[in-house]
Amino acid sequence: MKHVLKIMALLVAISAFWIGLLETSVVPRSYTWLLAIYLIVSLGCYGLLMVGIGLMLFPTCPQEAVLLQKDIAEAKEFLKNKGVDVGSD
Amino acid sequence: MAKHEGKENKYSIIIPTYNERLNIAIIIYLVFKHLKDVDFEVIVVDDGSPDGTQDVVKQLQQVYGEDRILLRARPRKLGLGTAYYHGLKHASGEFVVIMDADLSHHPKYLPSFIRKQKETGANIITGTRYVRNGGVHGWNLMRKLTSRGANVLAQTLLWPGVSDLTGSFRLYERSVLEDVISSCVSKGYVFQMEMIVRASRKGYHIEEVPITFVDRVYGSSKLGGSEIVEYLKGLVYLLFTT
């Protein structure tokens, strides 16, 4: 099944549930649009939270740059002795 | 496809290049250094680099052997997706690795890709920069922010099942790569996303290994407005067509 259909099916299910609640007066009519607003706001907050947390915990590796420089030097040394042109570009 | 039990697998490493005269030499040295007991070949797909990349590759062939380093060049810049496809046609391994030539992907992770695939029997092993033992160096705060925002958006919309969607350091079972690549039409990094999302939708077993990514392009990868628009268009395209 196409992915977008899964998402739409989920939304339809939630809407059907909500309409059911409205129809059977479990939820007052004045709250009709509350679900849509609530969903959008929570989704937005969730997104911002995930971005914020991800940013704080963003894995960095400064030591890798140093190791890379070592590897480059090692490679250049080896290849120069083998006749490969490794002059700087 | 039946696994050849007891027979060593061969790995074809496809590296597209454009003006990577120095980096290709270093990459090939490091590949040979870290894959000492592995049956592999390197396939360099060069798009007519004016800086003499192909000459350096030919010198490397003298050092390591023309059967270990294949130069399969193209006349001019023809795009990443077609470069992989072109390399694939000349690959003789049961497994194919794709990686970048600019040293952002370090060959020292190749053994961990191979090991993970053997352990799990997965169809695709993809390198991820965004987990604890992975990481990125050379990105400023803005770049990290856009990367993180883009990732959260893609995760929310696509449920891809992998943590790093735009990464291009991957190991594929050869038949799987052939299957997936034939159904992908995007360009650039959206192409990488499309590959992994389509593979996920087709039910292939995908595993991840942590990798570190050193971005040495001065000023860090440019992410202007047009890149962001391309990305969003790519996301919408993937949302509706996968």
Automatic annotation (TrEMBL), chain A:
It is a multi-pass membrane protein. GO terms for cellular component: dolichol-phosphate-mannose synthase complex; endoplasmic reticulum membrane. Pathway: Protein modification; protein glycosylation. It is found in: Endoplasmic reticulum membrane. Keywords: Endoplasmic reticulum, Membrane, Transmembrane, Transmembrane helix. The keyword Secreted does not apply. PANTHER family: DOLICHOL-PHOSPHATE MANNOSYLTRANSFERASE SUBUNIT 3. Component of the dolichol-phosphate mannose (DPM) synthase complex. This is Dolichol-phosphate mannosyltransferase subunit 3. It comes from Elaeis guineensis var. tenera.
From TrEMBL, chain B:
Belongs to the glycosyltransferase 2 family. The keyword Transmembrane helix does not apply. Pathway: Protein modification; protein glycosylation. PANTHER family: DOLICHOL-PHOSPHATE MANNOSYLTRANSFERASE SUBUNIT 1. This is Dolichol-phosphate mannosyltransferase subunit 1. It holds the Pfam family Glycos_transf_2. GO terms for cellular component: endoplasmic reticulum membrane. InterPro entries: DPM1-like, Glyco_trans_2-like, Nucleotide-diphossugar_trans. It is found in: Endoplasmic reticulum. It is an enzyme of class 2 (transferase). One of its GO terms (biological process) is dolichol-linked oligosaccharide biosynthetic process. It comes from Elaeis guineensis var. tenera. Signal peptide: none annotated. It catalyses: a di-trans,poly-cis-dolichyl phosphate + GDP-alpha-D-mannose = a di-trans,poly-cis-dolichyl beta-D-mannosyl phosphate + GDP. GO terms for molecular function: dolichyl-phosphate beta-D-mannosyltransferase activity. Keywords: Endoplasmic reticulum, Glycosyltransferase, Transferase. Its EC number is 2.4.1.83. Component of the dolichol-phosphate mannose (DPM) synthase complex. Transfers mannose from GDP-mannose to dolichol monophosphate to form dolichol phosphate mannose (Dol-P-Man) which is the mannosyl donor in pathways leading to N-glycosylation, glycosyl phosphatidylinositol membrane anchoring, and O-mannosylation of proteins. Residues 12-180 form the Glycosyltransferase 2-like domain.
